Amino acid sequence: MPEPYRGFASKVVPLHAENVDTDQVVPARYLKITDKAGLADVLFRDWRFNEDGSLKDPPFVLDQPGMAGRNILLVGDNFGTGSSREHAPWALAAWGIRAVISTGYADIFRNNALKNGVLPIAVDPETHAHLFALIDDDPESELRIDLAEQGILLPDGTTVEFDVDTFAKLMLLRGTDEGLGVRPAGTGGHPARFRPFRRVTTGAQIDRYPAAVGGSPEDLNFVLRVLRRRAESPDCVSLVFARPRGLAYQAGDWVDVRFLPAELAVGRTFSFSSAPTEPDVWITYRRGLSPFKRALDQAAPGDTLLITQHGSNGFLRRPRTPALLIAGGVGIAPFRSMIRDAVARGDQAEITLIHVNRTEDAPFRKELAGLAARQPWLKVHHLATVDDGRLTLNRLRHLAPDIGESRACVYIAGPPAMVASTERVIKALGVASDRVLTDSFTGY
């Protein structure tokens, strides 16, 4: 049984070679080897060793100083062509490679890699060139691979998103052999954030799409029709949809969204940025280069998307209880929903919002400032990291001086590194663990 695939950070092995086939990854004469661990020595054997077994001079990239222990292989276009053999991913895994980054892969290699714990990540040519330039400029740079959130975190804090087959992803995350797994109920990205509770909607008056190619029989397929687009900041956009009949949700809930075409059947998980009390449904995303994000950028009024599943991971504000909301970037989405919901319901328990964003151009900034001006129980603070730096212990003490002694609950939403560091700061201020709720993601 393979081990569950966890997120990891690693330096990178850069291999400037295109159209690498599996005969070059593992020469055919070694295909009789059955000990997977022994395959580390035959990985790229003919590129690494002379006929007498000595290392070539100059050494191949794997054998250069400092390369041992690196888990990411960055390679040229079109990797893994050639015959169908599992020895290629076996050898990569035996050497320590857990993820390969290229612009594309042969289907057979990609499938074999996914079955054997090696993640083949495909990026667009522009991103591919940028990654090579980054590593060539600083060979000690680390990338963080997050399969659950389908993102590569770069040293500057930006995220490169990638697509992966939903079923293969779930098998990797669970550490389950393909034959032993169960396909996920929804195809909209549900496994990405391990949503433990799906809301069930019953009744006849439900706007459903009759069938969707590439979907699951258990998908809800609620119809989302685009009404308009809203530019919330230079890099964040909200899509506003007509609310499907029968859709009921709570502020803080997640929603899985997909497009109709089969090639975009693997959707993404978002938080509702609209409040349940609002007439329309909103999702807010940060613009990106993945096929799904590009499709979102092209979505126009009248276009149709689908909700495949929706539910809660427990990231729900406790009614009439003071709250400290800390958002990183587009992590503001569920907090807009919570604040709008509190206003509509007349819940005047004190809320302090701290929004950490890279620049001053933060999504929903003007709207939230207007709400705070009219609601004495709402305080909103913005922190631009490009000017002010990150949210430190002293800065948090200044913005929420009584949080350690108060009965307020703390909610943190944003990228994993930001959520983890902020949670440590919050607990250092004396906030008990049962008063802290988190929702981390690489990027909507």
Describe, in plain words, how this protein is organized in 3D:
The strands form three sheets. Strands 4-3-2-1-5-6-7 form a seven-stranded mixed sheet. A hairpin with an 8-residue loop joins strand 11 and strand 12 (268-271). The protein is of the alpha/beta class and 444 residues long. Helices cover 23% and strands 25% of the residues. It has three domains: 8-180, Aconitase, domain 4; 205-312, Translation factors (Elongation Factor Tu (Ef-tu), domain 3), CATH 2.40.30; 323-440, Nucleotide-binding domain of ferredoxin-NADP reductase (FNR) module (Rossmann fold). It has twelve helices and 19 strands. The model is unreliable at 178-196 (pLDDT under 50).
From the structure above, extract its key features:
alpha/beta; Aconitase, domain 4; Elongation Factor Tu (Ef-tu), domain 3; Rossmann fold; 7-stranded mixed sheet; 12 helices; 25% strand
Task: Provide a short characterization of the protein structure.
With about 450 residues, the protein is α/β, with parallel strands linked by helices. The chain has helices spanning about 20-25, 45-50, 85-95, 105-115, 125-135, 165-175, 290-300, 335-345, 365-375, 385-390, 395-400, 415-430, and strands spanning about 10-15, 70-75, 100, 120, 140-145, 150-155, 160, 195-200, 220-235, 235-240, 255-260, 270, 280-285, 305-310, 325-330, 350-355, 380-385, 410-415, 435-440. The strands form three sheets. It has a seven-stranded mixed sheet with strand order 4-3-2-1-5-6-7. Strands 8, 9, 10, 11, 12, 13 and 14 form a seven-stranded antiparallel sheet that branches. A five-stranded parallel sheet has the order 17-16-15-18-19, with helices on both faces.
